[in-house]
Design a protein that fits this description.
single chain; 257 residues; mainly beta; Immunoglobulin-like; Jelly Rolls; nine-stranded mixed β-sheet; 1 helix; 10% helix; elongated
């Protein structure tokens, strides 16, 4: 009987020690990382007038760490954009919001983190989607300039889903001093790849005072391309308005507010 009691006491002692180890392990999770953000996507707008760049916007996104809690004092909030830039780090004593500027399109996998005074670290992954739109205008030209399209992400991330082109060519009405009108113009739209192959093409004739448009979607986003308007016949000047959209899959993180 005495041997049985000793055996049971030994089992109880081992169980108590094991329970203590499990409890100690769970106590190491001291940081409750909470990040609030309204947007995880945006669009860069690049505008040209007669072939000259007149403006280019960037996208700024804000990430609020103020609801993050910790058993120990927090010493660092940070976000690594994983695109070659140094991580952005702030001191929780003075600030809780990290703002990140994006000047290139792409899918970004952000690594947000908080670190306490005992060097414990908690991480959170946030996915950001940045698209790119090019606005292009040319006026009174019979020698249209080439619009370059670069869909290759500079952050070495996944390639865009597609390129969308919407182009309008107008043959504005001309009334000369003798009362005569303008002429019909003939031209073609072309999307050309790096090997100088024509991927898409449309030929059009536009009478004086009329216009025509071209809307095309292109799925080869692994090469740079050129959008050209080749003037074939006619003496009238034309006006051009084009919008080129570089669009990524909608794979960004949902807002957390």
């Amino acid at each position: 009987m005495q041997k049985i009691l000793c055996f049971l006491s030994l089992i109880l002692l081992i169980s108590t020690n094991l329970s203590g180890c499990i409890s100690e392990t769970s106590d190491t999770e001291t940081i409750d990382l909470s990040i609030n953000y309204q947007h995880t996507n945006g669009t860069i707008i690049e505008s040209y007038d007669n072939g000259e760049l007149i403006s280019k916007s960037t996208v700024e996104l804000n990430f609020n760490f103020s609801e993050t809690a910790s058993i120990n004092k927090l010493v660092t909030y940070g976000i690594d954009t994983n695109d070659g830039r140094e991580p952005i780090i702030i001191d929780p004593t003075f600030d809780s919001i990290i703002s990140i500027e994006f000047s290139n399109h792409g899918i970004y996998h952000l690594d947000a983190f908080a670190i306490d005074k005992k060097d414990s670290r908690e991480n959170k992954s946030i996915i950001v989607r940045i698209d790119h739109v090019i606005e292009w205008k040319e006026s009174t030209t019979n020698n249209p300039k080439t619009l370059s399209i670069d869909p290759i992400p500079k952050n070495n991330g996944s390639h865009p889903y597609m390129i969308e082109v919407f182009s309008v060519v107008e043959n504005p009405s001309i009334i000369d001093e003798l009362g005569g009108g303008g002429q019909t113009v003939e031209f073609s739209w072309e999307i050309i790849d790096e090997a100088n192959d024509v991927c898409h093409k449309k030929t059009s004739q536009v009478a004086d005072g009329e216009s025509d448009d071209w809307n095309i979607i292109h799925f080869n986003t692994h090469q740079t391309h050129e959008l050209k308007i080749a003037y074939h016949d006619g003496q009238d000047y034309i006006n051009i308005e084009q919008v080129v959209s570089i669009i990524h899959h909608s794979s960004e993180s949902e807002p957390n507010i």
